[in-house]
Structure formats: C-alpha cells, structure tokens
Amino acid sequence: MSGRRRFLGAVMGGRIDRPSVGSTTSVVTVDLMDQTGIYFPDAHHDPEKMAQLAATSYTILGYDTIAPVFSVQQEAEALGCRVNWGEKDSMPTLRKHPCHEPEDIKIPEDFLERPSCLIVLEAIKKLKVEYGSKAAIIGKVMGPWTLAYHLFGTEEFLIMTIDNPGKVKKILNILKEVTVLFGKAQAEAGADAITLADHATGELCSPGCYRDFLMPIHTELVNRIPCPIVLHICGNTSDRIGYICETKVDCFHFDSRVLPKEAKKLAGKRISLMGNVNNPETLYTGSTEDIYQEVQDALEAGIDIIGPECAVPLRTPSANLKAIADSVRRLTL
Ligand SMILES: [Zn+2]
C-alpha cells in the first residue's frame, strides 16, 4: 500500500495493510535542515523550500505523511499580527496582538493572497505534483480558539471566557470563517487531509468550556471543510475526548499525557486516533529502545497512526523520529 492510501485508510477507519506512521504537526529538525541545506526562517517564506524541507518526513524519516505548514502563525500574520519568524532553531512567535473587540477583527479580502497564506497553498500544490501518489499531503489550519489567542492575546481572551461569554461566542463565530476559508483553499490546492489545530488544552479550557464554545463549531468545521480532518489538541484531553467524538471529526491527534489505552477506551470506534510518542523526554533525549516501547504500547492499544504527540522540538535527533517508523515496521511485519 502507498503511504498515502495507508494514511487515508487509517484516518477514515478503513482497510489497511498495517497501522500508519505519520504526523500532521511539524517533524522538522535542525538535523533535517542540515541534511537538505534548507533552513528556518527561509522555509516559512519560500514555497519550494517549504515543500522540499517538509518532504523529508517521507524521504528520510519514512513516514506516510508530508506536512508543509511548520508554524502556527500563517493566518495570524495575514490577519494583521506582527510575527517574528525566528531562526533555524526557533519557531516563529507573535510580537503583538492587534484586537480588543470583535469589531477589531478584519479578515482582508485578499486573505488567501497574503504571503503567509499563499506560500502554504503553493507548497501544497508542489508537493501534490511531486509526491501526490506516494505520501499523504497534510494541510493545517488554526481553529478559532487558537486564532483568538493570537489576535487578542491568551490572557485577555481567557479572562473574556469567564467575564463575557457572549463576546467570546461572537469572536469565535467570526474567526471560524478564517478556518473554513483557509481549509477549503488547502483542500483545493491538493491537501489529502487537514490538521485542525485548536489549542483548547485542559489547563486553559475546561471540558464544559469545550462543550459549550467549541463542540458546535468543530462539528460545523468538519462539515464545511471538504476533506478528512485531524483535530489536534495538546495536553491532557481525556476529559473531553467524548465531546470530541461527538463532533464527528475523522481523527484525533493526542498528547502523551493521555495513555494510548485510555484514549482508545474513551474514543472506541467512533473516531481514529493518532499519536502519541512523548516529545520532551522520549524523542528528544530517549533511546531507540524507549521509542520502540512507546510504539509497542500505542500499537497494542489500537492507535491507528503512530507518530510524535505534537510538533517536535527542533533539536530532536532525526534518528529518533525515524525510529518510530522502524519500530512500527518491526512490530507489524
Ligand atoms: Zn500540540
């Protein structure tokens, strides 16, 4: 089976020859930059460089996926935030949050033509031509909760969830249109599946908050973005996996703070699961034996796609990332 068919089969709960290996968040490392001679921040600004660096997840690591959107700031810049695009060993960060009121949100008419969005669409098109029959090309959009952090600042937005829920709903309803716009454009450009990253993490958003504010919006996004959706939320999400299943998202990409067996027990057969090899300890400093052990636990629990829990630290050894793919092959021969 090609990586593309295996990944898509796994995401949609269909027939596959073995569990898939992949990541819908960034697996780029400084080591992969050294191997290709393509570095951050250039790879955020040039579609050819973005595509070629992203392709290493397939060509060097042996994953079934290629995910070209490395940062979480593409939409933010197009919406008027000031982004510091970082260095080769740092991810982009935001300098300024431009909004205080829902009326301050301005979705520009040329949103998709703004450089930080256009580059993503161009990179997806290039990858589709070169790797489209082999690997699954993965797009990425930020959900409205994450976009609100970017536009209003995390603290200001979280205080609003307590003080003024009506205003929060208004903001989320405006920002969900950004997610739909960028998601549809990436699907049209050739993305096989799209990561919906919405950082409604346990410490910052209670399960009730997820149910009331986000469950209806995530359900709507699944219906309006015309390709398989992988929801990514970091942190301990065991208290909301039930609600996530109700959105009918195709797959949930979960963190190592949820044990694979627990995630599977909570989700059952309602959605597919992707994850959840620990980043800061196992992948960053662990041995290939540690990785083998975690992969074995995930496979035994019935996780559909095995990969890192989230975007990996940039100094992660590539050999450890490759060890995930090697371990899955060894364990499923
Ligand atoms: Zn994450």
Describe the structure.
There is one protein chain. By secondary structure, this protein is of the alpha/beta class. It has a single domain, classed as TIM Barrel (Alpha-Beta Barrel), CATH 3.20.20. Helix content is 50%, strand content 12%. It contains 16 helices and 10 strands. It has an 8-stranded parallel sheet with strand order 1-10-9-8-7-6-5-2, with helices on both faces. Strands 3-4 form a two-stranded antiparallel ribbon. Strand 7, helix 12 and strand 8 form a beta-alpha-beta unit. The longest helix has 25 residues, at 165-189. It is globular. 51% of the residues are buried. The mean pLDDT is 97. Bound molecules: zinc ion. Residues 232, 234, 310 line the site of zinc ion.
Order of helices and strands: HEHHHHEHEEHEHHHEHEHEHEHHEH
Proportion of beta-strand residues = 5-15%
Tell me the count of domains.
1
Second-tier CATH architecture? Alpha-Beta Barrel
Bound molecules: zinc ion
Q: In the CATH scheme, what's the topology name?
A: TIM Barrel
Look at the structure and give the CATH class: Alpha Beta
